[in-house]
Amino acid sequence: MKNYIFLILIFKEIRRTNLILYFIDEKAPGRAKLDIFDRVNSGSTLTKHHFFKPWA
Question: Is 39 exposed, middle or buried (0-12, 13-18, 19+ CB in 10 A)?
Fold first, then answer.
């Protein structure tokens, strides 16, 4: 029963979470996609500049 209550609390927290999603254009250069992927997975903060000119 304890695990079930824990899961309910986690689910409620997930539902309250706001997500910001960015979509990468499929026509974007492969290098740009990989650069964004690496930056996201590294945990570094991305700015709008990185999304519009990720190769810079």
Answer: middle
